[in-house]
Structure formats: structure tokens, C-alpha cells
Amino acid sequence: MIDLQSFEVWLVTGSQHLYGEAALKQVAEDSKTIAGGLSKSGKLPVKVVFKPVVTTPEAIHSISLEANNTPACVGLIAWMHTFSPAKMWIAGLKALHKPFVHLHTQFSAELPWASIDMNFMNLHQSAHGDREFGFIGSRMRLNRKVIVGHWQDEDVLSQLTTWMRAACAWHDLQSMRIARFGDNMRDVAVTEGDKVAAQIQFGYSVYGYGVGELVKSMESIPDASIDKLVSEYNDNYLVEDKLRKGGAQHQSLREAARIELGLRAFLEQGRFNAFTTTFEDLHGLTQLPGLAVQRLMGDGYGFGAEGDWKTASLVRSMKVMGSGLKGGTSFMEDYTYDLSGKTPKVLGAHMLEVCESVASGKPSLEIHPLSIGGKSDPPRLVFNVAAGKAVNATVLDLGNRFRMVVNPVEVVEPEKPLNKLPVARAVWIPQPNLKTAAGAWILAGGAHHTGFSQSVSAEMLADFAEMANLEYLLIDNETKLDAFKKELRWNEVFYMMKSNGL
Ligand code: MN
User: Fold this and answer.
1) Which of 135, 182, 231, 312 could serve as 278's disulfide partner, Cβ 3.0–4.6 Å?
2) What digits encode the pLDDT tens for the residues 139-160?
3) What phi and psi, each to the nearest 5 degrees, are found at residue 392?
4) 333 C-beta neighbours (distance < 10 Å), count
């Protein structure tokens, strides 16, 4: 469902007419080589397209407008091969509505000590040309990433990749549509927020529906489609006997399949990329959608439980960022702790809705009672999440701004088999430890719902937050609680002043 290969990033090289046609020709050649080299490295998720060298305010303005109007273009890489007086960039940067990264590089890595002359110096000026460009970015208070190093360096490619993935997610966010069945879980605070503010800042829109609309979509599903999907379940999962054909609760599995097909059809028809449900509004449904949500997330949909549209959009964005990488992304909730021993841990899960993309092996498809919601028992996929690096992220609405909090974690194997736990789960140790991580998370107002990912990095989320003009707080191995508290206070002042136009 998510394919980044149709996207492109444009390499825009700045120069000026001072050096003569031969120098400009060489600049263009070098820039073409870099664009081709970056694309051919095989390490970047999107294509890098060479654009003609820009040397006038008109050309810069025009390429910015062209970028804005090109749906496949998710952002620009700006690089000043030579000096490019930055007043020329003001109109273009003002008009640009796509993210840009400033690649501070030089065509050749080595300085030719023995042969260097003024011709070489005139051509390779990024050391100071990029500083002039950097000034105008800062003067205009533009959010951007600055990457420093030779364009063939592994580290530079890796930082570019990260930025590109964030740019794809930002691009996706601009037209993201979230379907919301029912409203919020009653009385819950953190899942609420200002949808108008979110749409203005992030681009996505949230559409509310009565759950009856979903029921209507389910009613038109033919039995043959349900048969087909149930046999797909049999192929993909370890289906427990009572759910199999002839089993006592086979009908519940068929009902789950009907929910999945109805929900999928609804989302496809409405061109939605994410959705929310709530167990307090299930009128006309016999069971809370569990399996359906797990599988739709597996296909790239964002999801938030209990009406949590902010987490639904975040999960979708993280799925775009991590597309094609090893490891999955899911809706998650910090559920229960192990506070014993030297290394306290979190057991993450939800009532049902953990994405199958994070499963460590073949999930088992089981049915168990659900203690809330007052509906029939819902089938669900049960599995462990594989040990290894992961990240948790949350977005919350503070009233005057949105804030993102990110915490890298280490998923570990459960100490003992969780034979009686009827939901998918992950056990993790947060950075730097549970005490500091949970303390900082709570002081920051971070939600209990998160986007959890084995493929997305904290740096990707930082780049994404930069594009979204979103406050970004990282809790990692460097975090000290007293410094973190100061950061919260300082940010409060910063954003207050910023909202006043300073
Ligand atoms: Mn929840």
C-alpha cells in the first residue's frame, strides 16, 4: 500500500554568473554526477533528480513554484557549489512549500595539495558559499536539516535517507484522511485535541462517522468473499480449533472477516489512510474490531483506539517513514510494568489492536472474552514482538501547540512464556531506564498511546518534527531528568513567544 519509489527529491545547485560559462558548465556537470551518484547508490528510498543550476532570483523562485506544483517531488536538496549571493534566494525560499535539506558538501573529497590553483578555488566554494546560504535560512527562520560531509560518505547517505523518509511521511500527511468511527472514549483527555489546528499545521483531515456507516458497508459483503478471507486466515496464522470450520466459534471468525472486509471497503472508497474506533460506540457491531484492525495496520493504515486520531495519523506517518525497511510499526500502549529486579521493564500491548507487522513469528489466531465493551468475544492475533531496537513516539495537544515525545527502547524476550495473556505484546526497556524515561514522559504529558516502530529511528522523527514545525522532545541515553525539566520550561517560553510572531 505504501510505495516510496514514485517519489523524488530535487537536487538544486546554486551559483551565480560571476565565474563565466565554463565554470557554470562544470558546476552543472558535477551536480549531475552527484544526483546520479546518489540515485545509483541504491541506499536512498527515493530518486534524486538533477535540476539545472540556478543563478538568478527568477530561476530560484521559479524552481520553488515548480517543486510546489509537482506531486511526486517531496522536497529539495540545496547545495551551493560556488558562491550564490543569498538575497537571490529570499523570494524562492519564501514561496517554497516543500521541505528542504541543506547538503553542505564538496564535489571532490580531497584537496589537491600539489595542483590547487585559483581556478580550483573558484569552482569549489561550498565551504563559504553554503555559509552564505545558511545565513539566509537562519535569517528567515526556516526549518531545515543541515547535512555536512562528502556526498559519497556512508554517514551522509544515511542522514539523507533519514530525511527523505521523513519528507515522504510529511508529503503523505498533507493529503492524509482519517476516518473516525464514533467519538472519543468518554472522559479521556489526552486523546482529545484541536482538529482544526491539526489540519492547519499538518494537513491531514479527520472525518467522523457513525458506526452504522461501517455496519452498512459490512452488510453488502458477499459470503464468498468471507469464505476466501477465512481461508487466507488459515494460511497465514495458527488458527485455534474452535475458530476453524466446524469449531464452536467459527461463526465469530466469519463475523471478524465481515468486519475486515466492510472496514476495508469503507476505507478504500473514502481514500482513507488511517482510522479510529472506540469500544464505547459499537452499535450494530457484534464485536469490537480486533483482527481487522491488526491486519489493516499490517497493510499500511494508521490506527488509534478510543477515538485517538492523533495517534492514528502518527502511526500512518511512521509506516510511511519505515516503508520497505526491516521491522514493523504499530499502534501501542504502555500497559503494565515489571518493577522488580535491577532493570524495570514495560509490557506494551492493547486490548486487541497491535499490528501484525511487529510479530516475531507466525501469529496465532485466538478468541477470548473482552472484559469491556459488552459485546461478543472478538478473535485476535496473539504474538510476541521480536527482541531488538525500537522506538515509541507520541503527539499531544498542549493547547497552544502540538508536541512530539520520542523514546528509543530495547525490546527484550519475555522472561517467561505469557501463556495466559490473550493479546499481542512487547516487553521493552526504555532508554535510559524506566525511572527516567517514564518520569520524563509523564512530565512532558506524553500519552499512554504511542506509535511503536522497529524500523523508524528517532532521527527520522526529529526530521519529521522539523518539517511539521512540531515541538520535539527526545528521551534517550543522554536524558537527565533535571535538564529535561528545564527544557520543558524553556520550550514553554519559546513557543509562547513564537506564537506571538517572534
Ligand atoms: Mn487505549
Assistant:
1) 182
2) 999 999 999 999 999 999 999 9
3) -115, 140
4) 23
